[in-house]
Please model this.
Amino acid sequence: MRLDQVISRHHPDFDVAAARLGLGADGHVYLASGAQFPVGQALRIAPDGGARRAGAVGYAVLAITANADGAIATAEAHFSKRVALWDRDFNPVGRLADFTDSDQDGWLAPSDVQPGASDDFYAIDQYRLRVVRVGPDALAVAAYPLDALGESATQGAVGLRVSEAAGRFYTAWPSGTLWASAMDGRPLWSVPARPAGDTFGAFDVSADGHLYVLTAGDAVRVFDGDGGAAGTLTLTGGASHGVTGLRARGTELFVKRADPAVLFEVYEAATGRLLRSIPADVERLTVSYPSPVWTAGRPNPLTIGHDGGAWRAEPRLRAWLRPLGVPEFTELGDTVPAAARGLYHVRVSPDGAGRLTEYVVDTVVEIRTPDTHGSVSIFTPLNRFSYGRGEPITATVLARAAAGQALPFTVTVRVLGPGGVPVTAEETPLRDGRGTLTLDATAGWDPGRYVLDAQVPGFTVAPQYLDLGPGLAARPAFHLVQHGDYIESFPSDPRRAGAHRPRFADLPDLTEDHLARAAKLGLNLFVDRLGHGWQGRFQDHPADQATVERLSGDPAAVAPEKAIFEDPTRRTIAGYGARGMREQAILLYMDAGLPLGAPYDTRTPEQMVADLQAVTRHLLDYPAFRGWSWAANWWYQRTGAEEATGPGERAAYDAALEDARETGTWAPVLDTVTDRTFALKADAERRFRAALDAVAPGKVSALTAPYRSVQSHPPALFRDADEVDLHYQAEQIQPPQVTPHQVDF
Model:
C-alpha cells in the first residue's frame, strides 16, 4: 500500500487543484484561485511552464484572462460582483461592478470573462441574461442580450467564449445546453452538452471556428462552425484527475485537471496525445507498507520517502501510533509495540508529538496478537470516548473467528482506571459471539482515562478506551456562552479555511483541544444551529471506509464496528457533558420569519417539528444536551395594521393609532390587531415545546426577541418560555465602545 501527500509551495491561498484556467491573448496561460476575503491568488505562466509570475486578485475570482497588451481581467462574484482589471504586475487598474448577485438570483456573477481581438473584454452577467463588454479602462462599452436563448441561470454559473471575428458568443448553461448566438442576441444553433467544471470551463472555440467540449472523462467532442458533429478525440497520456477547464490555441489543447501537483497539461488537438505536463511547485511525501494487518512485536513495516522537488527541505519525518479515537500519539519505533491490539491510527509527521503539520500522512492499520485465529472487540455505542461521572456506560463484546473456529461463551471484561489500576471486572456471557454489559457505578470513579479490556487465549482483543470527566453534577450559577450563528462553535477542519467539519484523523486531538480551551475560558454553554440542515450532520463517521470494508470481509479481523465513530458534533457534545458543559440547539435558520415558513426558513411547521424531534432523538443519550433556543434572529413579517383582517379593521386601526398618538386615548382595536402579531411567536413556542416534550420531557424551551426586534413585547412573548435567549447579533452594526479594544497584537 502506498500513500502520497503533495505539499504545495505556491502561495497558501493558491489551490493548485481548484485553480481556474484561462488563456490570455498575450500568449500566456493564467490560473486563478479564490480564497477567503479579501484576496485570492493568480499565476501567469508561459505555455512551456516558464516565466511564472504570481499576484493577488479578488477573493471571489471565478475566471481570469488577459488581452493582447497583457492587461489582466478577472471575473469576481459574490459581494464583489465585478470585472477587475490589473496590469502585467497584478497592480489594480480599475473595476466595473455593474453585475447582479443576490439571494434570489445567485452569487456567481460574473462567472466568466474572455478577451476579444479588440483588446476589450467580455463578461457574462448571467442573471440579467446579457454579456457586458468592458474596455481596458474598466468602462462598459456595450451590453449584448441573451434572453432570446430561453435559458435561465438562477443560482448557477454560465461559461462564456467569444469570437469577435465571427460576431459570436458561445455560452454553456446549467440546463446542459451549449449555445452559439450572434452578438445581436439571435440564437444560431445549440448542442446538448454540459462542459465539465463547476463554472462549465471545459470547452473552447478554436480560431478556425471548431468547438471543443469535454463533459466527463477524457473524451472531447468536436463540432464545426454550424454545430455539426466533427468527431471525437480522447486525451491520452495525462493524469487521472477530473478535467475542470479546457482551452484551444493553434494546434494544441490546454487542459486543467483537479490535480494538486500539475498546473496544466497540453495535448495535440488533432490526436489528443499528451505533449507536455506543467508541474506545480510542490514537495511529495510517500508512505508505503505491504499490508494493513500488522503483528504486535514484529518489525515496523513502514517505508517513508520524501521528494523536495526544487526545495532543499529535509524534514525529520517520524511515525506515530495511537488507538483509534484516542487523542495522544506515541512514537513508533523499529518494532510494532508488543502490547498493541486492535485498530490504530498511524501518522507520519515531523511534529514532536505527532500533531498536524504541513507534512502529514494518515492511515489506519489493524494490529493482531501473534498466533491468534480471531478477535474480541469491545466497544461503546459508536466507540464513544467521553463520559461524565454518574453516566452508565454500555458496551458490546463481539467475538469473531474464521470458519470452523470456536467462539468463546463468556468474556471477563476488566475495567482499568488511571495508571492501569483495576477498578472492576464483569463476566459477560456471549450468545453467537455477542454480549453486552452496563457499568452503572461510574459516580464513584475518579476522573481520568479508563480501558475496557479482556484476555481471551487465541484471540486478539481490541479494547475500548474511555475518558471519564467530572460530569454535570451541578448546574452553574450563570452561563458563559459561546453562541453559534452562521459559524458553529464546534471544532472546524484545520486543513481547510472556512467552517468545514474535520476529518476523522484530526478529530480526537482537535476535540480535546477545543474542550481544554473552553475549560480554560470558563465556557459552560454552547448554542448552535442544529435543527436546520441537520441531515448531513448526525451520521456515523467511519475512521476509514476502506478499513470498514476490509474488516467486514475478514471474519478473523477486528469487528468493523470498531472503525465507526460518532460524528464530530456528537463527539464534542459527549465531551461537553464529561467536562461540565452543555449544548443548546437552535431550530430555525438565520433571519427566520413569522408566520412560520416565511423567509428565510421556508420549511412548513410540520417539517420543523419533524426536524426538531429527529435532532432531539440523536442527542437523547448525551446529558450535555439541555434543550432548544427556537431561533436566533426571528422577525415578524407583518406588524401593526398589516395584521388587520380586512379594509374596515385596518381603517379602524389606523384611525385609533393616530388618535392614540395625538390624545393618548387607547382603543380596543389596537390590542385586537397587535395581539395577532404577538400570538405568532407564543403559538410557535407552544407548538415546538409540545413536540419536544413528546420526545424528551423537561428539556429547555427558550425564546429570543431578538435584540433588534422592537415589536417584541416581553410580557406577551415570553410568558411560557423557560428562558430568554439574549443573543445579540450586530450584523453590519458596530456595537458602541468596542472599537478601541479591537487591536490585534
